Amino acid sequence: MIGVATAQNTINTVPAIQLGISKFRFIETSHAKIKGWMGFASKALAKKGVKVLTPISLDESIESDFLKIEQMLLSEPDLNVPILWNIGGGQKNHMLGLWEVFKKRKNPLDQVCYSNIQSRSIEFWYWEKDQINHHRIPLDYDDELANYLAVYGFEIKENGEGTLLYTNDKVQNRHEVFDWLKYPEFRTFQSKSFKKLETGSKETFSLDEIKKSLADKSVIEQLGKAVIAKNPILNTTEKINIRPNFISENLINFILSFIRKQILVSERIAPQDFTFSDPELVSKLTEIGVDATLKMNSLSLEKIYGMTSGLFFEQILIAQIQKILEGGNHLVKKAYANVKIKSKDNEAEFDILLLTSLGTLHVLDAKMDVFDKKDENSRKLVLSQAGGAFSSFRPVFSFYPNDMDEEIISPALLQKFRDYSLENADFMVFNSMDFENLKLIINDQPVLFKHFNSLLSHLNLLKN
Fold it and tell me: What is the pLDDT of residue 200?
């Protein structure tokens, strides 16, 4: 097989590996040589037993002219053998140059191939009785994740292999987790436990900074008492206007910052109680040795879940995707959880990762609440580099439409959904109510909620 080295090099490696090609020869442009694309793909091909031959270098003076490319290839002495020309890589002039060589050679043993993800097939053109005929076979790529990533210069970090969830049409390391979120009362408890205390001013001063500024801890205590005496209704929402010209007021603000921190710590240590009343939920809590009355904080949630809230939701999605994949009729070859990858420049961890027979990667990111846009963009960037142009990133949120009351669903999360809709960005939601698509209006903006249970359809990974 001969193909043009390109940034999207799975266009070369996927058909080569699926077809069991014994030898591969890259055509390398000056830009491809600088980027090192051939080197990455060569390692992946070598691991599958494909011998990578010395590349054919395209000089800058001809690489944009398909006729000159054609002439150069026709004069290559080493090409007097049957060749499978892969026209998927490079620019149009490169593809056209290879196609014209195929036509001019008119070798009945030559073929042209193209890995077409849209049609889910490898397409072939060949000579028969002075006519060019065409046929296709289904794309059915199967490889290890590490070897797929190697094509793009990525590798799995040390101890970052994660957990294999599905391979060879079978579930591996089956996950089972009880879905506490199906109880409305529990979701209310969780929402209140998540609720962040509002502060009137930014917490900018640490105790060490205060000590450094005032030098004497006793002075801090005295000033603290004085501040409290002057502010009997002191709370976390109080604001003090800083006027730099008055040293006394600056000192007071130092003290207030410290006091606010102490109040926040105190409130987190001693949060309010919540008593469950749902008989079935109370019974389930009793089974695991948890009282019906709990403090509303993350510690209580972890006591019930047996893990952090974020990890709990992730485990729910993992268990659910194993059930979905076990049903068959899809293009997913392998599924992994908690994989950490890196390249020379970037790294990322992905909650759930799907590798398909089309040679594409899909990432599902479990989220209980809003998360930093920079973090999301960073993961998307790494995935685009490690999975190519046909990869996809989908955040998945816990969402029950009956909880639209802002007391249960945070306004920030509703705004996040609205933002996704305005940006035409895909996301999914999960709950145990088994709805597929639901359109809701959030602040006059229609928002389409796609359900996780139908992810194979959303990702266009169903066979039929």
Answer: 35
Q: How far is CA 369 from the centre of its chain?
A: 16
In whole angstroms, what separates CA 277 from the centre of its chain?
38
Rounded to an integer, what distance in angstroms lies between the CA atom of residue 157 and that of residue 347? Answer: 9
Q: Can you tell me the mean pLDDT for 59-85?
A: 88
Sign of the CA dihedral with 9 first, then 10, 14, and 20 last: positive
Q: What is the DSSP letter of 462?
A: B
Do residues 6 and 32 make contact, with C-beta atoms less than 8 angstroms apart? Answer: yes
In the chain, helix, strand, coil percent, each to 5? 40, 25, 35
Mark whether 211 and 330 lie in a shared domain: no
Query: Do both 104 and 45 map to the same domain?
Result: yes
Whether residue 42 is predicted with pLDDT greater than 90 in this model: the reply is yes
**For residue 377, how many C-alpha atoms fall within 13 Å in the half-sphere facing its CB?**
3
pTM recorded for the entire structure: 0.81
The mean pLDDT value of the chain amounts to: 85
Q: Is the pLDDT of residue 434 over 90?
A: no
Structure tokens at 236: 């976390």
Residue type, 228: I
Cα separation, 320 vs 430, whole angstroms? 10
pLDDT at 199 over 60: no
| DSSP per position, 36-82 | THHHHHHHHHHHTTPEEPPPEEPPTTTTT-HHHHHHHHHT-GGG-S-
Number of domains in the chain: 3
Residue 282 in domain: no
Q: What is the pLDDT of residue 214?
A: 52
Checking if the pLDDT of 267 tops 50, the result is no
Please indicate, yes or no, whether residues 132 and 170 belong to a single structural domain of this protein. no
- Asked whether 140 and 20 are in contact (CB, 8 A), the reply is no
* H helical segments located in 330-410: 373-387
Instruction: Find the DSSP H helices in 331-458.
Output: 373-387, 411-422, 455-458
Are both 241 and 364 inside the same structural domain?
Answer: no
CA distance 98 to 75: 13
Asked if 32 and 3 count as a contact pair (C-beta separation under 8 A), the reply is: no
DSSP 101-140: HHHHH--TT-EEEEEETTTTEEEEEEEETTEEEEEEEE--
